[in-house]
Structures are given as structure tokens and as C-alpha cells.
Amino acid sequence: MEIQTSRFGNISVQEEKVILFPKGILGFSQNKRYVLFPHAEKSPFYWLQSVEDGRVAFVVMSPQLVKQDYAVNVEDSLLRELQAGEMSELEVMCIVNIPHDQPDRMTINLLGPIVINVNKRCAVQIICPEESYSHRHPVIADMG
Q1: Coil, strand, or helix at residue 33?
Q2: CA angle, 32 then 37 then 1, to 5°
């Protein structure tokens, strides 16, 4: 299928690559279907692009790249919801905020990770109860 996006123009998406977010993403509950693709070769960043609304796309990355000990406590109910038997079947990504005028001040939302069952193509965004995580954790300071 072809989708019209504001950032990438028309892109071709294979239906089997679409990830279903039954509850949507916080603040974007009306968008349920997304595709995930790399920003560039060897880049740590990915784009999570809405299939339903070409204006909605998020920059995401693995939280372990900025906080090596980052861990998400996944309850059995979430495993069932994502049709997974264990945590090893899931991938965790977090949304990155990149200010237009100061990209070196980018932050990552460690409080609201996205948990994806890549094989089943379904995902949810959860809220971590971990008090030491921030929704505005600096990316550059910890990567460098």
C-alpha cells in the first residue's frame, strides 16, 4: 500500500510490516497502525510512522543506548496482550524529542516506553512506575 506522509512524501508499505497499537500512543489514540523503519544506515534512530495519518511520526530509539541498565517490568497481562510468552520476544523503544533549534538538547522519554512484539506486529505504550526514569532524559550527555 502507498501512504502519503508529510516528512517522506509517498512511501510504499507492505501490509505485513504494519504494527498494530490497539490503544494507540498517548495523545494519538486515534492512530492504531504504524510502520517502523530506520532513519539512516547505521543510525541509532528509527521512525515510527502512522499509516492512518501521514503527519504523525515519532523518532524512536532503543533506551539501552542512553541508559544501559534500562529495564521495563512487563507483567503477565501485558505479555498476554502482546501475544508473547516471555520478555525476550519483545523489543522496547522510546520516543525521542529533538528540538528544531538545538538538536544537541534532544531527550528520550524513558517513562513511556513502547513495547513491541516484532513477530506478531503488535505493540503498546506503557507508563513505567520507576521513579528514577524521566520523560526528558538527555540523550547526548549519556551517549558521549
Answers
A1: strand
A2: 60
Cβ count within 10 A of residue 101:
5
pTM reported for the whole predicted model: 0.93
C-alpha cell belonging to residue 92: 522496547
Range of the domain at 119: 2-143
In sequence order, what are the beta bridge partners of 93? Answer: 114
Segment 77-102, tens digit of pLDDT: 999 999 999 999 999 999 999 998 88
Q: What is the CATH number of the domain that holds 69?
A: 2.30.290.10
Q: How many domains in the chain? A: 1
Reduced to 3 states, what is the DSSP secondary structure of residue 137?
strand
What DSSP string runs through 70-112? ------HHHHHHTT-SSGGGEEEEEEEE--SS-GGG-EE-SSS
